Amino acid sequence: MKFKTLNTIICSAAMSAVVVSAIFVAVIYAVMLLSENRKTLLLKWVLTLPFSFLCLEYFWQTHYSVRALNWMTEGYGKQSAGGNFAGFLFLVLLFVLCAAGMIFTYSRSSEKIKRYTKAQSLVSLLILILVIIVVVSLESFFPSYRDVMSYSYG
């Protein structure tokens, strides 16, 4: 098998994993937005905005993605322009999928959902705790940003 064919297969598999993970995140997002009325749904959505900004700021300031790349592929160095573009496309995909989830939940909000709110709160809290634990534990494995910037490119 030629390298070009193998490369195409590997890239396609990686892209499908990204799309599936984005769909999974959007489904979780939609389930967490389900509310007994539209006013509560919009309040939840509005409250996600500052938390999303804080989360994005944390990942940006800690150079999380670059350090993760260098943990998975030692000596990778700085993220390339292509990597930044792919990350941007992934964010656009997530935004579109989450917007679709928002529209779906907006059309589904009703009194029937009231009985699920306790379970929803518990599951949301568990997901939040799990994400924090994973991020903090991975942080301990990642190389420092200073080390990443010191990798030679020759």
Quick gist of this model?
The protein is mostly helical and 154 residues long. The protein is 79% helix and 0% strand. The two termini are 30 Å apart.
SSE layout and pairings?
Layout: H1 3-33, H2 38-61, H3 64-72, H4 81-108, H5 117-141, H6 145-149
Helix pairs in contact: 1-4
Keywords:
154 residues, mainly alpha, 6 helices, 0% strand, globular
Question: Residue ranges: pLDDT <50 for 5 or more in a row?
Answer: none
Helical coverage, percent range: over 70%
Shape: globular
What portion of the residues fall into strands of 2 or more residues?
under 5%
Structural class, judged by helices and strands?
mainly alpha
- Report the strand count: 0
Major sheet: none
Q: SSE order in H/E notation?
A: HHHHHH
Number of helices: 6
Oligomer: single chain
**Rg, Å, rounded:** 19 Å
Average pLDDT rating: 81
- Distance between the first and last residues' Cα: 30 Å
Structure, explained:
There is one protein chain. With 154 residues, the chain is mainly alpha-helical. The longest helix has 31 residues. The radius of gyration is 19 Å and the shape is globular. 8% of the residues are buried. The model has no long low-confidence stretch (mean pLDDT 81).
